[in-house]
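Quick question, first post here. What does this chain look like in 3D?
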Amino acid sequence: MDIEQVCEDFQLAKNFCFLYLVHGVDVRNYDRESRQAFAHSLGEEIRFVTSEQQNNHLIILGDLNMNPYDRGMNLAPGLNAMMTRECVRRGQRKYQGKQYDLFYNPMWSLFGDNTSGPAGTIYDTSSQGPYGWNMFDQALVHYSIVDKFANVQILTQAGATPLLTSKGRPNSLQASDHLPILLSLKGDNNG
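> Answer (accepted):
Ran it through. Tokens below.
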């Protein structure tokens, strides 16, 4: 193998990223502890995959059925997801003698009514959703590629189809009870 090919293969590997699509256990059939246990198992799976593949460039995307502040999202053996880029810059945190990689959760910045879009990705006021708005749909970015993160937004339109009702809540009759999210990364040409 010549040196040019080795360098080209290295560049491809450096820009390679795993996309982990997740649908967590639902809030109607599983209690908080079960969802936390799911996050712990998912964290173990992710650590196994990154170790086996020797690549920690990873994005987790999906309906996690937890809010950003839920324990499964924040505990080190769970998803270890923090609210700011600065929090994840150190790369890892130590818990009970073991190092755990940090993830950036940009969904925190879209939570609440002081944002330009909806206050969450799902609206539920049943006994399972006492907050009204929840942020169950999330995107987590591994610390190793946090500088490649550009933007995340909650979509309220699918082409010409509005995804919100007149009250500004997800229109489950027209589309889904969850609003989709769009994650944008910086390309090599964008920085």
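The chain has a mean pLDDT of 88.
Helices lie at 3-15, 32-53, 71-74, 85-88.
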